[in-house]
Write the structure tokens for this entry.
Amino acid sequence: MATEKFPPEIESPFMEHLKEVRDRLVKVVLTILVIFVCLFPFAGEIFNALAAPLLSVMPEGATMIAINPISPFLTPLKTILALAVCIGIPVLFYHAWAFISPGLYKHEKRLAFPLVLSSTLLFYTGMAFAYFIVFPLVFSFLQGVAPEGVSAMPDIDSFLGFVIKIFFAFGIAFEVPIATILVIKTGMTTVESLKEKRAYVFVGAFVIGMLLTPPDVISQTLLAIPMWLLFEAGLIFSRYFTAEKTEEELAEEKAAEQRNTDV
């Protein structure tokens, strides 16, 4: 009896995209693991460098403490894991760019690359701003408001959670120019409309600063003011990204529409 032949299964584009996402995520995770392994021998030194802004303002003879018995071992490991993720962010952005770039027009690709590059630099700038400017001021303030007779001796695990939250809050907040450019470029709003809402943006920056930072005026202000200034910078640079489309761009979009119609 002849064996009945069935046509080969055709994999759907959706499944192909899922597999590509999986493969790229695996590469990102492997990159972070490799960085983690490379940083492992220096875990103690990296944690000490992270804690330097706090240790420098603590009273003479005061030290940080570890409430959990395993914290002296786990906390430095958590520190280098967080650092490995931060170092691996360019790899994450690259794979995100490689995934979406085939569906972009040529002029959109030319726009996307500088946006990806600038978003990476802005994220690192926000973290550097937090470490060199925010931490010394905030820790000095918090040490100064301790009631008389109370020795401020932070737990290392709580300290790490605090600084990671601040790092990512400032890193994400410094992406405001990119977000501003994108909402204007996609047509969700206009430069003129955002200019009219400056007062709301200013108040909103302080509300976000209140939600993302500890309950002290210094850190809230140090987050809100840069966010507002970066919003203004986004308005300025958005004019260069929202110019009228060239004949080449219009031709590309028309050709893509024609291909979709033929399909």
Summary: The chain has a mean pLDDT of 82.
